Amino acid sequence: MLGKTPETTIKAAAGNTAHPFDRATQVAAVEGRWRGTASEDYFAFVGPFGGVTAATMLRVIMAQPECAGDPLTVTVNLCAPVARGTFDLAVRPMKATRSTRHWMVELSQDGEVAAFMTAVFAVRRPSWSHQPATMPSAPLFDSIEPLPDSGVTPWVKQYQFRFVEGTPSYGNAPRETLGSAYSRMWLSDAPSRRIDALSLLSMCDTFFARIFHVRGEIVPIGTVTMTTMFHADAADLAEERTTMVLGAADARRFHKGFSDQTGELWSPGGRLLATTSQTVYFKA
After folding, report:
1. What is the DSSP letter of 41?
2. Is residue 29 part of a domain?
3. Angle at CA 133, nearest 5°, toward 127 and 139?
4. Residue 139 phi/psi, 5° resolution?
5. What CATH number corresponds to the domain at position 16?
6. DSSP assignment, residue 172?
């Protein structure tokens, strides 16, 4: 079970020698409840980057003794910014079948829910397999220079972005001709870290808001909800043994303060690892 591997246990997440991502998503049982701490390393404009919040909530499910299988699909709803300091995580199993287990997690501060997650874990068995989707073309990871550190928000420094198409170019006003919402990039943790379900979930939220690319400027935004489907389990990811993924992101419509956002994460070997969709609030 992926949830019981050394890399995803609470013990592995603790301590200053752990990877920043594991420190940021650390959970602990304190006085009969589960607790985490908002990491300054992964802060965005008004709170922690949503991807690391989602990964923390997924980690607390993996820490449960009755957790079985690997993440199949996760939906996280971000109701309010998570403030600095600690937060409580209330986790409970909802339903178990022969192949799946359904979970609910609520993240709260001062008695108010800031985010909640529903997750389905599955015990995958050998079966017929087919991948109609084709990996987007891209030069090798090392052949592309990483995006310079913009210093806009701390969480961006925790990743290396190597853009193949749709490199960010933002100004102080919207461009006269709207740009494409599509972008393609290699992505890895900084420093590098072996890809697992936790990092995949977090990376699904690393695509910069599509409205930034279209308008060519940074405007107030926020992820309202994000659903991720995992197309690889722990055995698949162990087989890939990769610290990088190729990401592709797009959007279809911006309307009355909200837009969609879709994304794919691919292994260097051409395996589709995860797909994601978001609803994003914007003010423009």
Report:
1. G
2. yes
3. 125
4. -65, 165
5. 2.40.160.210
6. S
